[in-house]
Amino acid sequence: MRYILVINSRNNEANNKKLEDAIVRVASEDPDLRSRLEFRYTEYPGHAADVALEADEKFKGSVAVVSCGGDGTIHEIANALAYRKTPLIPLPFGTGNDFIRTVHPSWSNWKIDDYLLSLDKVAYRPIDLIKLDSFDIMGNFIPGWSAYFDNVASIGLDTKVQSDAKAMVASHDTLFMRKTAYARAAFSNLFGKRAHKFTYKLELEDGTTVTGESDTYTLISICNGRCYGGGFTPAPNAQVDNGIANVCVVDDVNTLRAISLILKYKNGKHEGKEGIHTYRATSGIITSHEASMQLFGNYDGEDFFGHRVRFEVCPGSLNLGFFEN
């Protein structure tokens, strides 16, 4: 099989240099594999998706698209390849590598050379995506803020945390800042505004429905994968191929309680604790409780807005490549 490596030009320069050095070593160890590798550096926003679509239309599933970027690059390519034959192979080139933590738990023990030299051993199988549709207060569909997501979508405090973390990195882009920005932003936001006004209604895996009993929460996360934010674990038992979204809702709690919960939330030890609600859902609707306020959320680290959003699990909608653990 041929492999098209989509390399995010905004990657950390050191990571891209490691990739280039690894390719030289691959050429020496496996020249046949090197001859089947094609490299495409992104040139503009949305370019990764364009490359993936072009590959699918040209090769009809006889190539694999290899994502060499972070969760945002995987998200972009996954949206392009949803319901198509061409598989996606994700490599850990981001800061948090949260999706990789679910689909390749031993990723931190692998080097770039290991990934490249193992491409021909990848096993392919379908996984779920979750479709999120956004609507304005008049009920009009907003295509620009609607997408599939492969990992986690969330609304509330964690989106504010992510926004602040991005600002930290933008103002001081170092490896240390990239690795610590989310945790630093999370703790600083504990002492600010944590309450977000929305309601939710979920359809559970057994066909029953559940509606939130309040109109004010700290956050809601909808999880296909287990981790986000550089290792925070809202859904420690999530699986990407079981047709289920693991939903976690955190009540509006006082500061002392919030500090206790965020430590458990980071380590995936929060389920069953007071103020935490977890569900196994197939679809759901989340609505802003205030007419003048839009929901502010993110999927796979990309921001979205809307007065109301609807999500639905799409079983088997992406062909994914898995490395051996």
Oligomer: single chain
Q: Would you list the SSEs in sequence order as H and E?
A: EHHEHEHEHHEEEHHEEEEHEEEE
CATH architecture of the largest domain: Sandwich
> What would you report as the Rg, rounded to the nearest angstrom?
20 Å
Q: Can you tell me the CATH class of the largest domain?
A: Mainly Beta
Straight-line distance between termini? 21 Å
Structural class: alpha+beta
Number of H/I helices: 9
How many strands appear in the DSSP assignment? 15
Examine the coordinates and then state which fold CATH places here, giving the name of the CATH topology of the largest domain: Tumour Suppressor Smad4
Helix content: 25-40%
Mean pLDDT: 91
Structurally, the number of domains stands at 2
Main sheet specs: 11 strands, antiparallel
- As residue ranges, the low-confidence spans are none
Task: Please specify the SSE layout and strand pairing.
Blueprint: E1 2-7, H1 13-29, H2 31-35, E2 37-41, H3 47-59, E3 63-69, H4 71-81, E4 88-92, H5 98-103, H6 112-117, E5 123-135, E6 147-149, E7 152-156, H7 157-171, H8 175-189, E8 196-204, E9 209-211, E10 216-223, E11 245-251, H9 255-266, E12 276-288, E13 295-299, E14 302-306, E15 308-322
Helix pairs in contact: 3-4, 7-8
